[in-house]
Amino acid sequence: MSDILEKILATKKAEVEAGRQARPLAQLEREARAAPPPRGFERALRARIAAGHSAVIAEFKRASPSRGVLGASLDPAEVARSYERHGASCLSVLTDSIYFSGSPADLIAARAACALPVLRKDFVVDPWQVHEARAMGADCILLIVGAVDPPALRELERLARSLGMDVLVECHDGDQLEVALGLETSLIGVNNRDLRTFAVRLETTLDLLPRIPAARLLVTESGIASPEHVRRLSEAGVRAYLVGSAFVETGDPGPALSRLFSGPKGGG
Ligand SMILES: O=C(O)c1ccccc1NCC(=O)[C@H](O)[C@H](O)COP(=O)(O)O
């Protein structure tokens, strides 16, 4: 079995060591203080849901380990504006370069082009990356339970919140969900994709949904590609969605968002 997650995490640790040399923490802290204030990621999701709609976190994703090239020449600013026009509540931007062909520059350009809060989608394993996320203007970071042990997750979460960012904690099974619920954040991501095998099952969300307390907000992630998928998840009570490939692979991501979420609880 190919274990891409292990490979990605090893790459991240090396990148952090190199990053620390190039941009010491004191410099990053200064940059983070000068960054535009956080926009309220969770607040935007909850406002859309309170208005009776699904909340969509629309992802800017040029490529991925499971799908290869999806939209290498997409312009992050244009896509961000289009997502905003077509009803996205928030953006997610991949900032990993080696495996996803993304970059911090993509996040900076996307955020500057719209008023939506932005998730830094990356593999955060070290406090240095949390400061880096805020320095590039991120409003929320992703923490993956399968990537970091629980004490380190708590430390990374505390740091992110102290910098004013929200945290989306991602799990993939019942044991990981217990760890996720041990954090303070309300935003519980359930990734339908097994990051070790790439298998995608929407049942991952449907199985874990009843175990998530009402005060928390489940965000279903990955593999949502048809109105039928949205209908199944919505009927089960899912209100927040993170979608990337199904939008960017069309070459015109904003209208693809409208088409996917055009049902009664659609995001638009
Ligand atoms: O997308 C991948 O192939 C992938 C492989 C290994 C680790 C993470 C990966 N994706 C990150 C994500 O969680 C997705 O980009 C996100 O949930 C959107 O998924 P999709 O709508 O299926 O593009």
TrEMBL record:
According to the record, the segments passing through the membrane are none
Report the superkingdom from the record. Answer: Bacteria
Is this entry keyworded Amino-acid biosynthesis? yes
Pathway listed: Amino-acid biosynthesis; L-tryptophan biosynthesis; L-tryptophan from chorismate: step 4/5
What InterPro entries does the annotation carry?
Aldolase_TIM (IPR013785), Indole-3-glycerol_P_synth (IPR045186), Indole-3-glycerol_P_synth_dom (IPR013798), Indole-3-GlycerolPSynthase_CS (IPR001468), RibuloseP-bd_barrel (IPR011060)
Q: Which PROSITE patterns does this UniProt record tie to the protein?
A: IGPS
Query: Which Gene Ontology MF annotations are present?
Result: indole-3-glycerol-phosphate synthase activity; phosphoribosylanthranilate isomerase activity
Q: What protein name does the entry list? A: Indole-3-glycerol phosphate synthase
Name the source organism: Usitatibacter palustris
- Which gene underlies this protein? trpC
